[in-house]
Amino acid sequence: MKRCIFLFMMVLLSACGSSTYEEGEKIKADIVDVVDGDTVTVDMDKGGEETLRLLLIDTPETVHPDEPVQPYGPKASKYAKELLPEGKDVTVEIDTTIRDDYDRFLAYLWVDGKW
């Protein structure tokens, strides 16, 4: 009986710490880091720190482990870092698919009310 209660408490506690997201949900966040032109790390008000793969943006590779730095990749990363400085307030909008094959969060990013 004690074992059943222990397992129940563990499941309950783990459920309390996890966040669920719904399609179209918008969550306030702060920029933590720009990884490259289409990937950023944010601290979301709901769910903590996440690496986002920005939807509707595709820039040349600069940090892919199996690919060389591609032309204009560093320029795209520089632009993203200028647009999204550390601490910048943004809004993350959830899409229909939450994560990609690299476990990055797939989302639209609203900056100054625009995406």
From TrEMBL:
InterPro entries from the UniProt entry: SNase_OB-fold_sf, Staphylococal_nuclease_OB-fold, Thermonucl_AS
Molecular-function annotations in GO: nuclease activity; nucleic acid binding
SMART domains hit by this protein: SNc (SM00318)
Coiled-coil annotated residue ranges, if any: none
Organism superkingdom: Bacteria
Ranges of residues in domain TNase-like: 25-115
Pfam families: SNase
Keywords: Signal
Endpoints of the signal sequence: 1-20
Residue ranges of the TM segments: none
Protein name per its UniProtKB record: Micrococcal nuclease
UniProt organism field: Salibacterium halotolerans
